[in-house]
Amino acid sequence: MHDSALVFCSFSDPVFPYPLFLPWLGYFDKIDRADAFVLLDNVQFKKNEWQNRNRIKTAQGPQCLTVPVQYRFPQLICEVGINTKERWQHKQRQTIMSNYGKAPCWSLLEPFFEKIFAEDWQTIGELNIHAVRQLAALLGIVTPLHVASKLPSSPADPDERLIAITRHFGADTYLAGSGGHGYMDLSKYETAGIQVAFQEYRHPEYRQMFGAF
């Protein structure tokens, strides 16, 4: 690529960007703004964060959806298995259907959720990457999506890792989340000849079920 932007998934301002479980809208804004998007699944899994859980809005208030995992420190995201003995898919399907089955445009998303709740997912990385790909397609996003664990190995240092993967794609710009100012060593990117742009995203408000936005 020439004069192109490479972006990695992130949520708020984590030290490492990673694939999330049913990500928020700003996540897909970053994908749409990029020429290439890399899902960083070969970093350490973070327990009790957004990699295996999310929240939905219900008539009773926010409700958490959690995918049970079998995690052993210091496993990488791509290594963390899903606890298939728990009936998490059945429970989540019932929860989403009861709260969103009558929502506008539900028919567009129903096939997506049916596959999520019917497939025999073995790892959280596999599940999240599938979900991101499918939701991006439903939103009309055509940015190529890549998986970091399928790329050549890169340095352990967080900034050097991002620089190496950016170079792998021949990109000259890395698009970071707004919180990147707090943890990125921008001097390393400058030395490497990589520009850093920061996402400025304002979440739109729209009509939704169960009261105010």
How many domain modules? 1
Poorly predicted runs are 7-16
Helix content: 25-40%
Rg measurement, Å: 18 Å
- Through-space gap between termini: 40 Å
Rough shape?
globular
Tell me what the structure shows.
The protein has 213 residues and is an alpha/beta fold. The chain has one domain (5-198). Helices cover 32% and strands 16% of the residues. It has 6 helices and 9 strands, in the order E-H-E-E-E-E-E-H-H-H-E-H-E-H-E. It has helices spanning 25-33, 88-100, 106-118, 124-138, 158-168, 186-192; strands at residues 5-8, 36-39, 53-58, 61-66, 69-70, 81-82, 145-147, 173-176, 195-198. It has a 5-stranded parallel beta sheet, sandwiched between helices. Strands 3-4 form a two-stranded antiparallel ribbon. Strand 1 (5-8), helix 1 (25-33) and strand 2 form a beta-alpha-beta unit. Helix 2 (88-100) runs antiparallel to helix 3 and helix 3 (106-118) packs antiparallel against helix 4. The protein is globular. Residues 7-16 have low confidence and may be disordered.
Helices and strands in order:
Layout: E1 5-8, H1 25-33, E2 36-39, E3 53-58, E4 61-66, E5 69-70, E6 81-82, H2 88-100, H3 106-118, H4 124-138, E7 145-147, H5 158-168, E8 173-176, H6 186-192, E9 195-198
Parallel strand pairs: 1-2, 1-8, 2-7, 8-9
Antiparallel strand pairs: 3-4, 5-6
Helix pairs in contact: 2-3, 3-4
